[in-house]
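Lecture notes, part 5. Sequence design as translation. It can be helpful to think of inverse folding as translation between two languages: the language of shapes and the language of residues. The source text, in structure tokens, appears below.
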């Protein structure tokens, strides 16, 4: 039987949560490059050195925010696709809808994980599994239903696609992995364009555009 958390552990968890909340406020206000542990310490009312008891550096805090974002996004997509009785195409469309809904409700967190690289920040291995979970959440339900139109890629690309499928724990061949990679990349790109305002004055709101292109991706996958 596990012991209940101590008051000290509870207080630490609460402080970690407050630090993340303040960091997310900075992220929304002026972007990831301006996140400052000193400013967060000031808002918490503690000396700047005390915050390093919780996060050893700005990069460590960024990593925590990135992991949280991936995990939250993956959970949203998983919830939308966790309906085995629905067909593969329906589950794919539902997953794409959840992807967009999350991105539109959390644009700054979306930019944190799929936007421009943060100068000076190198993502550690800790971010790989959460990032893979997002891809697996969207692509997993269609495994076994993807219909590649041609022969499997060979050579270096074939080996890379095999390794990627293995890392994502997707039981697909290189041809199917190529299709899924292209679909995911185009969906992320489309959402990024929308969130950055590139459709304003023409294709905004982009609801119909998104659905039409998702349906086209489903067609391309052979669903």
């Amino acid at each position: 039987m596990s012991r209940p958390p101590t008051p000290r552990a509870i207080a630490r968890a609460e402080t970690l949560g407050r630090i993340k909340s303040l960091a997310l406020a900075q992220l929304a206000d002026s972007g990831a490059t301006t996140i400052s542990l000193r400013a967060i310490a000031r808002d918490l009312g503690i000396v700047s050195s005390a915050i390093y008891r919780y996060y050893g550096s700005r990069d460590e805090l960024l990593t925590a925010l990135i992991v949280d974002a991936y995990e939250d996004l993956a959970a949203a997509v998983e919830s939308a696709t966790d309906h085995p009785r629905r067909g593969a195409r329906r589950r794919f469309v539902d997953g794409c809808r959840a992807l967009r809904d999350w991105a539109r409700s959390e644009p700054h967190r979306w930019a944190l994980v799929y936007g421009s690289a943060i100068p000076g920040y190198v993502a550690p291995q800790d971010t790989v599994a959460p990032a893979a979970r997002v891809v697996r959440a969207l692509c997993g339900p269609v495994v076994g239903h993807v219909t590649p139109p041609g022969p499997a890629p060979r050579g270096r690309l074939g080996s890379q696609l095999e390794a990627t499928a293995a890392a994502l724990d997707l039981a697909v061949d290189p041809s199917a992995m190529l299709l899924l990679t292209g679909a995911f990349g185009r969906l992320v790109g489309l959402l990024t364009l929308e969130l950055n305002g590139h459709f304003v004055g023409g294709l905004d709101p982009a609801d119909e555009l998104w659905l039409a292109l998702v349906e086209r991706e489903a067609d391309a996958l052979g669903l």
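The translated text above is only one of many valid answers, since several sequences can fold into similar shapes. The CA atoms of residues 206 and 212 lie 10 Å apart.
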